[in-house]
Amino acid sequence: MNKIMDEREKRTEWFMHDRFGMFIHWGLYAIPGRGAWVRSDEQIPLEAYEPYFEEWNPIFYDPKKWAKAAKNAGMKYAVLTTKHHEGFCLFDSAYTDYKSTNTKCGRDLVREFVEAFRAEGLKVGFYYSLLDWHHPDYPAYGDMYHPDRANEAYKGKEHNFERYLDYMHNQVRELMTNYGKIDILWFDFSYEGHLGEDWRGKELVDMVRSLQPDIILNGRLEANGESYGSVMTDDPNIFSGDFVCPEMIIPPQGLRTPSGRKIPWEACFTMNNEWGYMPMDIHRKTSTQLIKKLVECTSKNGNMLLNVSPTPKGEIPDWQLKILEETGEWMHENSDSIYGCGMSEFEKPEWGRYTQKGNKLYAHILEESIGAIALPGVKGRVKKARRLADGSEMLLLTPWVAKEFPDCEFINYANPEWASFHVDETRDNVIELELIED
Fold it and tell me: Integer distance in angstroms from the first to the last C-alpha of the chain?
C-alpha cells in the first residue's frame, strides 16, 4: 500500500465526512466590483490599483455573522482568501506593508475570522495564492496572467524569483504559526513554468507538515482547475496534495486512481458567475440548484465548497445569505443524507440519486412520479422506509399495477390505490431506507 495515500486517507477522514464548506473570496477587488481577476483581466497598472488599498475600510466586517450563517447553512468548515493573486494580505504579515493592518481598517481580518469560526465549532481553512501581482520579484512581462504581461515598461526587467519564493514561504510559515490549529491549506495555483518544484514544493510541504501535522492540502502546488496532477495516480508525489479541487464542474463519476483507490475531492462553486464581489452579475443560482449539486457531489464521494463574496464594507450580500438560509432549512431536516455519506452500492436511479452510509440508503427523489416509486436493485433488501424530513413512515408495498416488475421494490407516499401523488420538485425529497444487513 502506498504510504502517501494511506496517510492521505487518514488525514481526510473528517473532511470526507463533513462534505459541505464555505469558500470566502474577499480582497481589494471587491471595491471595483468586477471580479477577483479584475486587475489581470483589465491589465490595470499597479499605480492605478493603489487607490483601492487607500480606500479599504470594511466597517461592517463582523465574522461572527459570517460564521453563524455558515453553521446555520449546515456547513462544517470554511476557507478564507488570506491573499489572492493581487497580493493584498488580510493578515498582519511581517514581510509586507501591503496588508489590512496598514489600511484605514487597521485590523488583522484573518485573526478575527479564525476566532469567529472556531467559536461556532467550524473547522478553519486558509486560501493562499502562489501568484503575487504586487511583489516586485514576481515575473511580470510575458507571464500568462500578470497584469503587466504586455507592459513594455517591464520588458527586460530582472526578477529575483528565489527572493519571491523566500517571501512566499515566509508568509505561509506565518499563517501556519500565528493562528493556532489550521485544518485546510488551499493553494492556488500552478501553471506553465510554475509547477511543483518551481515553487520549492517539497520544502514548502515539509515545512507546512512540520508545523501543522494534521492539516490537509489541496493539489494546486502542481495543478490548477484544468488538471489535477499526480494525486490522480497510484504513485503521487509529496506535493500532490490530499484532495482534488474541481472548479465550477462536478466530475462525471467519483474519482479513483487506476488501481481503484478513492481520491478525495471537493468541487468549488460560485453563487453567480464570479468569485469576487460583483453587484452587476445577476446570473444567480438558486438554493434548489445548489442543494441538488451538494447531493450530486456526495453521491460521487465528493465535497462541495460554496463561495460567498463579501462587499467592500465587509458584508455577505443579502441574496447570498438568503441562499444559505434556504439551504440550511433543507439541511436541518435532511443532513443525515449528507454527513458521513458517499457513493451508493446501487446504480443511480432515473428519478434522482442515492447516497449511502452503512446500511442506510438515502433516496433523493428529484422529480414527480406517477404512482409508487420504483427502487431498482434493492428488492428484498429494504427493512423499512421513512421520510427523512419528518420521520413519517413510507409504505413498502407493490401496487397492483406493478406486478409485472418483480425485480423492483416500491415505496408509496400514501394509499397505493391512489394513482399519483405530489412531490415538491423545488426541493430534494429524501427517503431513508434501512437495509437488511448481509
Answer: 28
Quote the pLDDT of residue 420.
47
Indicate whether this model's pTM tops 0.85: yes
Counting residues of the chain whose pLDDT is more than 90, the rounded percentage is 87
Q: What is the pLDDT of residue 72?
A: 98
Do the Cβ atoms of 205 and 239 come closer than 8 Å?
yes
Q: What is the pLDDT of residue 372?
A: 87
**Is residue 415's pLDDT more than 70?**
no
Mean pLDDT, the chain, rounded, equals 94
Mean pLDDT (whole number) for 51-76:
98
pLDDT in tens, 301-329: 999 999 999 999 999 999 999 999 999 99
What the block records as the C-alpha cell of 116 is 469567529
